[in-house]
Structure formats: C-alpha cells, structure tokens
Amino acid sequence: MRNMNDKKDSIKKVIKKGASISLCAVLAGGLAAGTFEGVNRVTGWNQGTTVEAAVNRDDGLTLMKSEKSDSAGKGSLDVSEIAAEAMPSVVSITTKSIQEVQDYFGMFGYGGYAPQEREVEGSGSGIIIGKNDDELLIATNYHVVEGAETLTVNFVDNESYEGTVKGFDEGRDLAVVSVKLDDIDNDTLDSISIATIGSSDDLVVGEQVVAIGNALGYGQSVTTGIVSAKNRRMDSSSNSFSSGDSDSNKRGVNLIQTDAAINPGNSGGALLNMNGEVVGINSAKLASTEVEGMGYAIAISDVSDILENLMNQEPREKLDDSEHGVLGIKGSTVSNEAIQVYGIPEGVFVSEVTKGGAAEDAGMKQNSVIVEFDGRSISSIDQLVELLKYYEPGEEVDVTLEVPDGSSYKEETITVKLDKNTAVETKKSSKTEDTRGNEENEDQDSEEDPEDFGSILKDWDNSMENSGYQRGYFFQNW
Fold first, then answer.
1. Cα–Cα distances in Å, from 349 out to 49, 374, 389, 407, 457?
2. Among residues 249, 457, 478, which one has the least CA distance to residue 350?
3. 305 is an active site residue
4. What is the number of other CB atoms lying within 10 angstroms of the CB of residue 343?
5. Buried b (16+ CB within 10 A) or exposed e, 441-468
6. Is there a catalytic annotation at residue 267?
7. Most CB contacts within 10 A, which of 136, 319, 350, 409?
8. How confident is the model over 129-156, as a mean pLDDT?
9. Catalytic residue among 97, 123, 157, 173
C-alpha cells in the first residue's frame, strides 16, 4: 500500500455514528473502531472503456451512460463476467476520524462527564464515474465520508491514494470524492475504468442484479440477488423504509430494494444489472433477527443530475461565524410526526422571516418549508446551518420552498442574496468594556446564557406543542 504524504494538522471533528441490529435501518458504511483493514485484492478489466476515455462536454463533466438498446438490463453476461468487468470501476474507501467517547468512570456516573477522543477507522466503497484534467472522480455515500479527517482510496491493483471530498448532498446521502491524477501511477490508471451508467427506471421486479463492494472492510466481494421492490423511501428519523407512492413520501431518495447481500462496508458500491451497468449505489440494509435479505440501493436514474453537479462543483472552504452569509429566518426541523400525520413536507419550517432580511427581500413567507438549498435537498435545520457556513454574504443562492396552498403545498424556487451575519457582531459589541471585571463577567455570562437560552426554547416548545414541528436551532439568522 502506497504511503501518503504527511497531512497538515486539521481541526478534529466530533462525529456521531452508530449501528443497530434490532429492527432498524443500518447504513452500510461500515464504521469500524480500527478493526477492519481493506485488503482489496481484485481482478482485471476487459470492457475496453478505460479511464483515459474522459467524459467531457462544453458545460462540464457528464456521466457515461449506456447506449445499449436492451436498457432493461436483461443481458446475457453471467455473474462472473459482470464481476470481472465491473471491479476496475469500483474502489474501496477507508476513512479516519476523531470520535468523542465517554471514559469508563464517567459511564457509571463517577466524576461527571469526562469525554475522551479516539481515532476511529471506517470503511466503504465507491464507483469511478469520471475524470477531468486534474482529478479522478468517485461517487459514494455521504455517510461513508462524513466527518473524515483523512480519506484513502484503494484501487483494483491494490494501490492506495489520498482522496478529498469534492462535493456532497447530505440529504440524498451522496458525495463525490476526488483523487489527483498527478498522484496516481500510470500502471494504476491503466488498470482502472469509468463505470457505465444504466437505467434504474427500466428495472423490473424479479430482475437479477449484482452488488459489489468492500464488505466489512475485507476487500471487494460480489453478491447477487433480484430486484425485490422499487420506489422505496428511507425515513432516517424513524429508521424505517416505506413505499414512495404516497404524497407524503414522494420527497427523499428513491431506493431499489434487493435481496443481494449488502453489508457494512458495501455503502457507495455498485448495484449492477445483467449488462454490467450501474443501476444503483448500495446504501443501507434492514437488519434484525426477524429480517433477511432486505438491502437498499439509491436508484441511479434519480440522482444522475445531482452526481453530475457534484462532479463539476468547485470546492468551498468553511467560513467563521462572522464571515458566512445568512438567510434571515427562524425555523425548525419538520418532525416525522408532522410529515406522516399532517402531510407537511420534509425540510425546515420557517416560523419567522426577519424584517428587511435576505429571505424577506427574496419573497420568502412565514410557514413555508425549505426543501432545497443551492440544489441540495434539506431535511433538517442542522443541515441548513452547516451549509450556510460555506457561503459568503452577497452570494445569490436558489432556495426551493414548499409553500402552503390551501390544503396542500406547491413548490416554488426563489433566489436569495445572503446577508451578513450581524448577530455575531451584535453579541461582541454588547460585551462589557470593563476590563477589570472581564474574567468575572465572562463567568457570569457562561452561567446565565444557558438559562436564558433554555427559557427561550421552553417558550418555543410551548408555542409549537401542537403544531407537529420538532425544535431546531433558535438563532435569529440562518
């Protein structure tokens, strides 16, 4: 395995990841506490479409889609041929991140909360979907790379290289990882290929499919099964899967259900039809002692445009609180109960629009629901707050809303010119100028602020108790 160059010190991120084996949805990203190490020894490629076949167009990169007339994927290849042809376009991804954990004594209530940090290694998979003049581009799940401080991509020839996240859509659980072409040996470039994208729309229930991925971090493995169902949706708040036919479930990621084994580490890997074309990105499974053979893959036809946008996205740097732009709203995450019972769209409920702020100037109204921000789907207030940290004041961003329209909602897209975050400056200017009592005042602030903030949240909860909304951040500006 190739040694990577020493990285600069980076800010440690605290991540919260877990898994359950009792009647819950298990993301197949394969988070492992340093246990699994990818071996990834796999075979060659024989389809004639190498990585040198750059997929370019005037307005940027595009996915290499199949031109076969047999779009339903009922080809004559057997599983061994599909595996041999597809493995050069599938990679293993290993991540390292910092996780905050409770120490032994703190777990049992001795000495209060005393968190410790430890390095956690995770494993997942990816699919080579294109390249530009400088980078090789790989599609994977967002939960595979979430919180990663370092990211290593292992190719078919068992060589490993450092990768970075080029773009992501947390709401749709998608990310694109890039590897610099200058870092990759010519022998590796000759051994890998760009995947051919098929049509998930043309799949039929009962059709055979093949799944390839880095199961348990042991290296690439192959499983096969059939399409068990189409048009499924995952509800991350309740860890459950359901049909996407109902109006309340039309938003979210369209999933293919399969009985092909999908296990931790398979996330981001390829689900292929019998022509060897990618029809899905393996993402999750339902795990329980009562459940067998219920794996899920993101339907590729539903996210092709999103992947192309991520492939062509310019990386952004996270800005300080005083530097990033804001919308000028108060809002909260729409709860699962509100979605299921009242048919309110998934997203961020706008409880108040700041007078004279960016949102009001763009025409955003109270009681609207933000469902997309700059092309990324929004499912929670945390996600929206995090995204805003990458945008500067004055930038114009398209925001998609679900607006109340009688007894239903209608979609509307507005362009918002982000405001400056004045809340941070106001807070700084309101601090005492008495330097002699500065330390004492800071101590008082630290004791009083949580109480004041708690009373605000209590009032908020009381006012929204019967409205079906879940409390989110309660800042003046987002």
1. 47, 17, 19, 16, 16
2. 478
3. no
4. 13
5. eeeeeeeeeeeeeeeeeeebeeebeeeb
6. yes
7. 136
8. 93
9. 173
pLDDT above 70 (res 58): no
Amino acid occupying residue 406: G
Number of CB atoms found within 10 A of residue 318's CB: 10
324 catalytic residue (yes or no)? no
**R_g of the chain, CA atoms, integer Å:** 24
Residue in 304, 305, 303, 287 with CA at minimum distance from that of residue 295: 287
Q: Using CA atoms, how far apart are residues 428 and 426, in angstroms rounded to an integer?
A: 5
**Model confidence band, residue 100 (pLDDT cutoffs 50, 70, 90):** confident
If you average pLDDT over residues 241-263, what whole number do you get?
72
Residues 233 and 254 sit within 8 Å (Cβ to Cβ) = yes
* Active-site annotation holder among 89, 267, 368, 379: 267
With a cut of 70, say whether residue 445 has pLDDT above it.
Answer: no
Residue with tokens 């700084």: 428
One of 89, 97, 123, 143 is an active-site residue; which one? 143
Whole-number Å distance between alpha carbons of 92 and 127:
9
